[in-house]
Design brief:
CATH architecture: 3-Layer(aba) Sandwich
CATH superfamily: LarA, N-terminal domain
CATH class: Alpha Beta
Shape: globular
Number of domains: 1
Number of helices: 9
Strand content: 15-25%
Distance between the termini: 45 Å
Number of strands: 9
Oligomer: single chain
Order of helices and strands: EEHEHEEEHEHHHHEEHH
Amino acid sequence: MESTMIYSAQDFKFNPPRKVAFARRILIKPDASVVAAHPATTSRETLAAVIAGIRRHSDADIIFLEGPSVSERAHEVFKQLGYDFPRVIAVDVRDCSYVEVENLLPKPFVLQSIWVPNVVLSCDFLISVSSFRVVDEATCGFTLKNMLGLLPAAKYGPGLSLLREKFHRLDLHGLIADLYFTLPCDLGIIDSRLRQVGGRVEPFGRVFVGDPAEVDARAAQLAGVRARYLDLIEMGRSMLLHRDSIENVEAPSAND
């Protein structure tokens, strides 16, 4: 079976991975930084299906975490978007404490370490639920780009403004790749009931579910764009394999 599944949005029924049944806390990162209709944000219908699927297998705490780009708090944004789900905890990135996590890559693309909300590290399973929205190739991204909303404005500035000041030309795709290796996402879901490509919004009626890098690659292929961070992730994987192979060769034998 393919690791990326594409479902009809009309009758989408979420079947979570087995790991969900053993999780105590599940974190969902919706695409909800502003108060705007789908596809600018994740639709209520898709999030409802995801929660229902989790509840069929688990009584774990479910946390919605977002760093809104507006003055309203996350719970206010969620309420206006219709995310009024019972037994779901709404958390604003701005209200969290932050932990600095080392990048696994020996040669990071942008950052050697990344500050993340402490609540993320206390969760057993992380799901990124993004919309299908491509304005241009330079800024395109799906579930893995959605993870940038977890980066605290207190450390990086609103809209990553402090990073943009530090780096003359911030490599957004490099930052996404760094975050991939620093804060692993367990599952990617792309909500494409509607999709936006360029300035055009059209019905699409699909939901993608699977490995975050793979669902993003499939969506980019369908949109006819290149998500460069996926190339960087492949480079990063090669770095880690090369490092591990060297360490295995250099490691002394137990008999030495």
